[in-house]
Predict the structure.
Amino acid sequence: MNGLTVGLWPGALEVGAPWWLLLLPLALLPLWPRRRHALTFGSLDWLPQDRLGSALLLTGRIAAALAMLSAILGLAGLAQPATEVQRTGRGAEIAIVLDRSRSMDEPLVPKGRQPAIDSSHESKGKVARRLLGEFAERRPEDRYALLLFSSAPMPVVPFTQHGEVVQAGIAAGGIGRGLSETDIGRALLAGAELFDRRPYSGSRIILLVSDGAAQIDDAMRQRIQRALERNRVAVYWVFIRSALSLGLNANENDGNVPEAALHRFLQSTGVPYQAFEADDPEAVKQAVAEVDRQQNLPLDYVERIPRRELSAACFALAMLAGLLALFVRLASRPAWKEESLS
């Protein structure tokens, strides 16, 4: 059976078991006057008014009514429903596309060094994950999505502003060993399509972090370009340069250099694009910091606030109010009744 939503200013409440609300009139019983409390006297004008006793009696009755009311609402499953709140901050919607291929497990060493013989350096993947975690921590108002890729794109985190989820997703990229194959074309397309059917609310970027590329055929290039244009996405590529790579600026006469070919393709798409070459941890850090500096524009976004259960609070209030009513009851017991009981 569906719950019942009750609108209250300035928000709303809902109950999961509305049939319990039929018992709400019972909460009025403690407030109902009872004739057995009335005693007949010839005249009471000479007696002083017992303000304290009257207040104590009224307090006990109200506490008993509140205890019944709270217990009924708790049984009915009182809760605040999930809501969406429109907020405005500064930052961007950022789709992190992180290379998880086997080459990212190699040490990040200076240009010209052999990566296989130098294990004293951090791996490229570890450096990238550490700096991306710091990047996300510095920008709590951004909304992030995370996608890992090697031979196929692997969505990990949908767009969210919950920093702990983003950090956990980035850390998960270090589990196990990557595959030897890299399909950066499908990864870029998947990153651009993350923005499909999302209302445009401000700056959008794909933050591609990879140490290489692969050949992309013309059909895939057209699909990538259409997706980037359709969603108005800027691309930032933090290219973690391998020790023996010719780099992004290698020309066609240098032979088959997939990263240089991808760089030229992204330059030709017409969307905002910037690449950063990094061959050591400090250069990677500077590249990520430059993205941080450039992308700090106003951003409108919708924050989803999850459903909040209030039954436990209702039961706690019912218990406290019941104890208060019991205390008042014992404190106002006539002395002659106590003597008769003893």
Summary: The chain has a mean pLDDT of 79.
